[in-house]
Amino acid sequence: MQHETKIVKVADVMRDKVIDAELLAKTAKTIGGVRFTFLVTRVLGKSYAAVTESKSGGKAAKITTHSLEVCKGDYRKAAQREIGLLIQRHGEDRVRAVLEFGGKPT
């Protein structure tokens, strides 16, 4: 049985267009007391995967090759790792606020 590719809509980098992306995995995490759902997606034609916040469709983090290797190819675990690293860098309150606003921490 062949794995069927599922396509979802995500925001482009500038958040002014909606583009197609392949859905690789789903995960969720509570950040600052708020539950967020994330999709692991790969924009068609791109070589890397990203953690996408499901409501806004905006990219929260890129999944690095290192994270994917550490997680033995498990995109869901790699997404959880990248979200954890994002929180370490920016703090839980900042990440929660940006995700609620629909933006991306800089």
Description:
- This protein is an alpha+beta fold and 106 residues long.
- It has one domain (6-101).
- The chain is built from 3 helices and 5 strands, in the order E-E-E-E-E-H-H-H.
- It has a 5-stranded antiparallel beta sheet with strand order 1-2-3-4-5.
- Helix 2 (75-90) packs across helix 3 (92-101).
- The model has no long low-confidence stretch (mean pLDDT 88).
Topology readout:
Elements: E1 6-11, E2 18-31, E3 34-43, E4 49-53, E5 59-63, H1 65-70, H2 75-90, H3 92-101
Antiparallel strand pairs: 1-2, 2-3, 3-4, 4-5
Helix pairs in contact: 2-3
Rg, rounded, reads 13 Å
- Integer average pLDDT: 88
User: What is the count of distinct domains?
Assistant: 1
Summarize the amount of helix as a percent range. 25-40%
Q: First CA to last CA: what distance?
A: 42 Å
Binned strand content: 35-45%
Spatial shape: globular
Strand order of the largest sheet: 1-2-3-4-5
Low-pLDDT segments: none
Number of strands: 5
Please write the string of helix (H) and strand (E) elements. EEEEEHHH
Largest sheet: 5 strands, antiparallel
- Please count the helical segments: 3
Structural class: alpha+beta
Keywords:
30% helix, 106 residues, alpha+beta, 38% strand, single chain
Short description:
The protein is an alpha+beta fold and 106 residues long. The chain has 3 helices and 5 strands.
